[in-house]
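Appendix B. Chain record.
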Amino acid sequence: MIRLPHCALLLLASAVPSASALAVDLVPQDVVPPPPGLTTVQLSYSASVRGDLFREGKRQASDTRLDLDAVTLRIGRTFQWRQKPAYVRADVARGRIDPGGSLQSFDANSGIGDLNLMLAAWPYVDRDAERYVGIAAYLRLPTGTYDPRKTIGLNTNIGQNRLAGALQAGYGQRLVGPLAWMIAGDVAVFGDNDEYFGPNPQASTFRQRPIFSTQTALTYQFNPSASLGLSYFYNTGGETRLGQSDWHNRMDLHRYGVTAQIRLPIGRLTIEYGGDITTHSGLLEETRWAVRLGTVFR
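Structure tokens predicted for this chain:
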């Protein structure tokens, strides 16, 4: 086992993004409501490379690296709810976490992730002016692969052994010509994980405070089949606590993303690229990219 300071081990207890975050990032055009009566199927592959470890805004001396990748299947259905557009979906991923650098003594781990459910509705829709207000509720169920021994020093579990949920609201509108704008905010809350070691010799309870997030995006529509979006994300809060220790690891994270969407005969292809700009605590995400192919059935 590698020798890291106790404070660094405690920080790594929540450094893995799947351990601390509930993903509610939007693709820029997600705020536009879909027509009812459609079944949607999406298959995606995503990869992330995380490097330097930060604590209280300061880079730690250890040479950390963490590679994460996942294949995700998402199935959804659009419908009318009180004469307004609505959408329900479920998704699950198979992922892998591969430590490197000063973390290479930890074994890589793979498995099935937790089941994610989402229900969205649009209380305000003006298709003529292209203005929309949407709200969404997310629920993550602890159905994924989890082994408490995989939390010793570094959590490499794909499942997280706890409930999580989020509420989100977003607004989007066409600005001028092919340019559209979107803004959204959300709060994520987390249940406790009672089987977590971290740096402790015995398992204890891992707790986390709510995470507050905002995001905004500009999209340029080249033609009805192709668009390019630029997004900015900000996450704050999410302090963690292991057993009776003090609350620590406050999140203060700035991120960016670039999204290209192309409509193909077989469906919509989405390519995403991004990473962290600055982070207060945890592993800095150097690069993140994803390829998603979605199709619809009536």
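Further analysis of this model is presented in Appendix C.
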